[in-house]
Amino acid sequence: MTRIAIADDHPLITNSIENILNHTGYYTVCGTYESGESLLAGLPEVMPEVLILDYHLPDQNGAQLARSIAYYYPGIKILVLTGFDKPGLLSEMLESGCSGYLLKTSAKTDVLLEALQTICKGGIYIDKSLKEIFAENLHRTHAAQIKEEGLRLTKRELEILGLIVNELSSQEIADRLFISKKTVDNHRSSIIMKTGAKNNFALMKIAIDLKLI
């Protein structure tokens, strides 16, 4: 089962999430924390695969914590669960190393499980209510980069990039395009080399710029 830690200073929210996850048969909660200090102290002991992180904790904000965790524990995937619906904050958290951003108002059981499944597969999850405006903001910010990125990539690479950021694994892409997994991995390496993308978030920004998603 996938080990999950929760950092949130509202016991009602923590208990609700813990109850949901422990009854799925796929996830188990290995630690809960009400402050950044207790979270950083507890992570080395429990070493979760996923951390559900509230942006606003009493002693530290989510961006500070995310950057620290991404640096010291790069294997931990971070899903932000917050009440703040600002696209700028969403960008900050993804750039700080988080793999997902979900609003508490949207976090019904099926949506929470969908978000976890997405990031566990290596994808990026963005709350549906923020996705369109986030894409529009990125498109405006990086408008000058769009033509350059498009010219760098071949038609096949653009096709594969679109599938990567839509959460398909290399094997799923290979099956869909009737090519080998090794060929997909080679194209992925070429995309990364040409664009300088260092992570899935960087690939997503490029894909949004090119209107692939």
Describe the 3D structure.
The protein has 213 residues and is α/β, with parallel strands linked by helices. It contains 11 helices and 6 strands. It has helices spanning 11-22, 36-46, 62-72, 87-95, 109-120, 128-141, 143-152, 155-165, 170-177, 181-195, 200-209, and strands at 2-7, 27-33, 50-53, 77-82, 100-103, 125-126. It has a 6-stranded parallel sheet, sandwiched between helices. The longest helix is centred in the last third of the chain and has 15 residues, at 181-195. It starts with a strand and ends with a helix. The model has no long low-confidence stretch (mean pLDDT 85).
Q: Termini, distance in Å?
A: 31 Å
In N-to-C order, the SSE pattern is EHEHEHEHEHEHHHHHH
Radius of gyration: 18 Å
In the sheet with the most strands, the strands line up as: 2-1-3-4-5-6
| E-strand count | 6
Average pLDDT metric: 85
* Portion in beta strands: 5-15%
Q: What can be said about the biggest beta sheet? A: 6 strands, parallel
Percent helix, as a range, is: 55-70%
